[in-house]
Design a protein that fits this description.
Elements (H helix, E strand, L loop, with lengths): L1 E7 L8 E7 L6 E10 L2 H7 L16 E8 L11 E4 L2 E3 L5 H4 L11 E2 L18 E5 L4 E2 L6 H4 L5 H11 L7 E5 L3 H13 L2 E6 L5 H7 L3 E4 L3 H6 L4 E6 L7 H5 L2 E9 L12 H4 L4 E4 L5 H14 L5 E4 L4 H9 L6 E5 L4
Helix pairs in contact: 4-5, 4-10
EC number: 1.1.1.2
Catalytic activity: a primary alcohol + NADP(+) = an aldehyde + NADPH + H(+)
Family: Belongs to the zinc-containing alcohol dehydrogenase family.
C-alpha cells in the first residue's frame, strides 16, 4: 500500500479537508498515475452532499483525472512510464455482460465500479482524483493526445464524454439543429462538440449573460429561456435538445421546441423528480431520453476528436485549499466553465 495526500469529505455535507489515503500496490495489469490535474464536476457536489442518495465516507471525489504514468504492472501492454493519461468516471466493470462486450461499460449490467464513492472488487472503497496518485487497471485508462494540455484535458473525462456520447448517438451533424440547454461545465463542451460535428447549434440559457461566450465557442444562436417569446419563436425547431441542467425543468415546455421525431436527452441529473404530461411526447412522436458518460473506447475517441479539432475545456485553475469555495461557486453558477485542481497544491 502507498500513502498519498488527498482532499476528502469526512461526512455528508461536511467541508472537504486535507487527509491521507492508501492506494493499493500496483498489480500485474495496473497503472500508477501521478495525478497532475483533477476537474470539479457538479456530480462531486451531489455525491459529497448525498444529493443522489446514501454515500460512502470519507469520500475523495474526482473523476476528471489527467496525469503521467509513473509505474506499470508486469502484464501491462497499453502504457509505459511517462505516458500522458486520463481516468474518467469508471475504474472497472464486470467485463462479461453484453454491454461491456459492446464497449458500453457505463451501462454494465453486472455492476461497474465508479472512480469514487463505490466499492472496488477487492472490497475496499474507491477514492477519486482529488489526490496525488491513483492506481487503475490499464483497461480503464485512456491516452491523452499530445495536442491537448493536461489541465484542459481533465474535464473532458466527464464533461467531454458526457456530451460527446449523446451527440454522436443522436447523430448531431450537418443539417441537424441542435440545442444545448444550460451553459455551464457540461453545456460549454456540448456547444464546442456539436459545432465541431457540423450541427447548427443554439444555446438555451436562463439569461443572455453568457451569450458572447456561447457564440465564441461555436453557437450559431443564443436564447434566454426566461423570455416567454423564446418558446413561441422556437416552437418545433430542433432535432435534438441536450439538457445539461441539474435542476427540475418544465419538460412540457421544452419538448414543444422539438420537431416531429425530435429527441430531448438529459445528461444533467436533478436530485428531485420531474413532472411530465405524456401528450408532450405523443404529439410529434418525440423522444424523452437520458445518456450517461461513455464507454472507454468512446472516451478515447472523444479525446482524439477534441485534439483533432484543437480544443479542450474552458477552465479556471485553482489550488486544493480552494475546493470548498469552488463548490459554492459551482452552485451559484459562478465559473467559466470548469474548475480544475492543480494537484501539486495538495
Amino acid at each position: 500500500m502507498t500513502t498519498v495526500a488527498a482532499y476528502a469529505a469526512p461526512a455528508a455535507k461536511a467541508p472537504l479537508e486535507r487527509t491521507t489515503i492508501e492506494r493499493r500496490e500496483v498489480g500485474e495489469f495496473d497503472v500508477l498515475i501521478d495525478i497532475k490535474f483533477a476537474g470539479i464536476c457538479h456530480s462531486d457536489i451531489h455525491q459529497a452532499r448525498e444529493g443522489w442518495g446514501e454515500a460512502i465516507f470519507p469520500m475523495v471525489p474526482g473523476h476528471e483525472i489527467a496525469g503521467i504514468v509513473s509505474e506499470v504492472g508486469s502484464g501491462v501492454t497499453k502504457y509505459k512510464v511517462g505516458d500522458r493519461v486520463g481516468v474518467g468516471c469508471l475504474v472497472d466493470s464486470c467485463r462479461e455482460c453484453e454491454n461491456c462486450k459492446a464497449g458500453l461499460e457505463q451501462y454494465c449490467t453486472g455492476g461497474n465500479v465508479g472512480t469514487y464513492n463505490a466499492i472496488d472488487k477487492n472490497g475496499e472503497p474507491t477514492y477519486g482524483g482529488y489526490s496525488e496518485k491513483i492506481v487503475v487497471d490499464e483497461n480503464f485508462v485512456v491516452r491523452i493526445p499530445d495536442g491537448l494540455s493536461l489541465d484542459v484535458a481533465a474535464p473532458l473525462l466527464c464533461a467531454g464524454i458526457t456530451t460527446y456520447s449523446p451527440l454522436r448517438h443522436w447523430n448531431a451533424g450537418p443539417g441537424k439543429k441542435v440545442a444545448i440547454l444550460g451553459m455551464g461545465g457540461l453545456g460549454h463542451m456540448g456547444v464546442k462538440i456539436a459545432h465541431a460535428l457540423g450541427a447548427e447549434v443554439t444555446v438555451l440559457s436562463q439569461s443572455l449573460r453568457k451569450k458572447e461566450d456561447g457564440l465564441k465557442l461555436g453557437a450559431d444562436h443564443y436564447y434566454a429561456t426566461s423570455d416567454e417569446n423564446t418558446f413561441k419563436e422556437l416552437r418545433g425547431t430542433f432535432d435534438l435538445i441536450l439538457s445539461t441542467v441539474s435542476a427540475p425543468l418544465n419538460l412540457d415546455q421544452f419538448l414543444s421546441l422539438l420537431k416531429t421525431d425530435g429527441a430531448f436527452v438529459n445528461v444533467g441529473a436533478p436530485e428531485e423528480p420531474v413532472r411530465l404530461n405524456l401528450f408532450s411526447v405523443i404529439g410529434g412522436r418525440k423522444t424523452l431520453a437520458g445518456s450517461g458518460i461513455g464507454g472507454i473506447q468512446e472516451t478515447q475517441e472523444m479525446l482524439d476528436f477534441c485534439a483533432e479539432h484543437g480544443f479542450g475545456a474552458e477552465i479556471e485553475l485553482i489550488k486544493a485549499d480552494q475546493i470548498n469555495e469552488a463548490y459554492e461557486r459551482v452552485l451559484n453558477s459562478d465559473v467559466r466553465y470548469r474548475f480544475v485542481i492543480d494537484t501539486a497544491t495538495i
